[in-house]
Write a structure and sequence with these properties.
- With 533 residues, this protein is of the alpha/beta class.
- The chain folds into three domains: 193 residues, 3-Layer(aba) Sandwich (D-Maltodextrin-Binding Protein, domain 2); 172 residues, 3-Layer(aba) Sandwich (D-Maltodextrin-Binding Protein, domain 2); 44 residues, no CATH class.
- It has 20 helices and 16 strands.
- The strands form five sheets. It has a six-stranded mixed β-sheet.
- Strand 1, helix 2 and strand 2 form a beta-alpha-beta unit.
- Helix 5 packs across helix 14 and helix 19 runs antiparallel to helix 20.
- The structure holds calcium ion (CA).
- The site of calcium ion (CA) has 7 residues, from loops.
């Protein structure tokens, strides 16, 4: 027993010595200054053509200043970046930091799990990155989405938590017309159908002409139709038309019965004149021209990021988001949520001598309140590149404390985005590590407040990450990409033809299913395999 105890003591001593040795360069006391003795780290990344030399950007200068680390920065043109990166990753001495490198999931698996050229970061994150750790703790789906099949994290992500950016589509309906006609907001697909019919038949804009209303308009974007399959319970990711049921079954939506319901709904709406007959010839500019045409408003409903991007600004709040409809009362509403992640934003080469220092440095950009790194990465320096203001746009002392809204300062530049790229940060044009979005102080822009409020009201209560970011083998990645090209084309062609009546849902739907059955099933199987890993 005594022997065991002393062994345990000796082990403890060894462990604490190891921990001390491990952190001898790292200053764990200071918030900013992370090294006790000056060190130099190499950093490589792809420079976007819009950006100045990275060494001249304020972010990199500040990063070095507050950490005491000198960065030896080498950038390559973004075009052809991989041609440069691939040989770099086979060198004996790897770069310490690969920054904004768009490292793909397949590269992570290859260079991380298979070749060991990238350093596994999960233990370092737990130990040295309290800000990122807190985010991963609060959002397990982020951790899942950045963990490779072998259970390692090789790359830090960019995390966008702005709710309005996390939904794929926003369907705006004219609430002034609803009021004019004494109609309630629709909650089922049948109610929506009745509303659209009333818009068409009952002079919804009240100008005495019962024929100038377009119940549903839009631009030529087939996904605006696809996405509404969520109203029948099968929400999808825009990118691959995949989703998961609550018990974790992966589906490729065009193979489901709900897809047929969605197609039937819009085919009927088209036949009844409820959909803009010019929709498939219109681009975004044409839709906007229609929404902003002089005279009475003629559009009842449309899909867009914000109503004011189509209709005049003063009508912005006359359009509400159509809620997560259900096929029949009592069904559970669902809407697809993005993970908000861009993976592959920062990795550490396996030969890096000071990975704990890199992690401590990188943790700066996952927080903005105490240390300001998250906002510095996006907006530059408070009081110089932007000013905190109250909700009225006034610079007050209280606004500096509240840090809710800001105005941007870009004197001498065409826009703040140009200033970001030329003077401030690689975050303009590149996917850097860090956070952006909902928890950050907002650029004051009242028109967006309405979008935010409506997204909170109509989508947030029902949304779910419908298909997370996954890792696949190179073979599966290639096969899935091939299948996607064929499936996307076939599904789009048939769906558009069903909607516009060129093909009959009753007579031709089985032929459509037969055409996608084999490839669609294989596609679904690949993603089921990736999801269950
Ligand atoms: Ca009218």
């Amino acid at each position: 027993m005594k022997k065991l105890l002393s062994l345990a003591l000796a082990l403890c001593l060894m462990l604490s010595l190891a921990a001390m040795a491990d952190t001898s360069v790292l200053n764990t006391e200071a918030a900013y200054l992370v090294v006790n003795t000056p060190i130099t780290l190499t950093l490589v990344g792809p420079r976007n053509a819009s950006q100045s030399d990275w060494k001249d950007l304020k972010f990199f200068q500040k990063w070095q200043e507050i950490t005491g680390v000198t960065l030896d920065i080498t950038t390559y043109p973004e075009d052809g970046w991989n041609v440069n990166l691939n040989p770099i990753m086979t060198e004996e001495k790897l770069p310490d930091i690969i920054y904004a490198g768009n490292i793909t999931a397949a590269q992570e698996v290859d260079w991380g799990d298979d070749q060991g050229a990238l350093l596994p970061l999960e233990d370092l994150i737990a130990k040295y990155m309290p800000n990122l750790s807190a985010l991963l703790e609060a959002n397990p789906v982020i951790r899942e989405s950045i963990t490779t099949p072998d259970g390692h994290i090789y790359c830090l992500p960019w995390i966008n938590d702005m709710p309005r950016d996390l939904v794929y589509g926003k369907y705006w309906i004219n609430n002034a017309w609803l009021k004019n006609l004494g109609l309630a907001e629709p909650t089922t697909v049948d109610e929506l159908y009745s509303v659209l019919k009333a818009f068409k038949e009952q002079d919804a804009n009240g100008n005495g002409d019962a024929n100038d209303e377009i119940p549903y308009s839009g631009q030529k974007n087939i996904k605006d139709f696809y996405r509404t399959v969520a109203w029948w319970g099968k929400a999808i990711s825009d990118d691959n038309l995949l989703g998961t049921t609550e018990d974790g079954q992966v589906y490729y939506a065009p193979l489901t019965e709900e897809w047929k319901s969605m197609v039937t709904f819009w085919a009927n709406a088209w036949k009844d004149g409820l959909v803009d007959s010019q929709l498939f010839e219109m681009d975004g500019a044409a839709l906007k021209a229609k929404g902003q045409a002089a005279g009475d408003q003629t559009i009842g409903m449309f899909q867009h990021a914000g109503a004011f991007l189509v209709v005049p600004s003063e009508q912005n709040e006359e359009y509400s988001i159509v809620g997560c409809l259900v096929a029949k009362e009592g069904d559970k509403p669902v809407w697809a949520k993005r993970t908000g992640l861009s993976r592959g934003a920062l990795a550490i080469g396996e030969t890096c001598e000071y990975p704990e220092v890199v992690c401590r440095m990188a943790d700066w950009v996952y927080e903005w309140k105490e240390y300001g790194g998250g906002i510095y990465n996006m907006r530059g320096e408070a009081g110089v590149d932007f000013y905190y203001v109250d909700e009225n746009g006034e610079q007050t002392e209280q606004a500096k404390i509240d840090r809710k809204f800001l105005v941007l300062e870009y004197t001498g530049y065409d826009s703040f985005e140009v200033k970001r790229a030329k003077a401030l940060t690689a975050n303009s044009g590149s996917t850097t590590p860090g956070i952006g979005g909902g928890t950050m102080p907002q650029v004051i822009y009242p028109l967006n407040d309405w979008i935010n409020a409506e997204v909170e009201r109509q989508y947030v209560p029902y949304w779910r990450v419908i298909y997370p970011d996954v890792y696949m083998s190179a073979e599966d990645t290639n096969r899935a990409a091939d299948l996607k090209v064929q499936l996307d084309y076939t599904v789009e062609t048939w769906t558009a033809q069903f909607i516009t009546g060129e093909k009959s849902v009753e007579a031709d739907y089985d032929a459509f299913l037969a055409e996608i059955q084999k490839l669609g099933t294989e596609y679904q199987e690949i993603y089921t395999r990736a999801y269950s890993k």
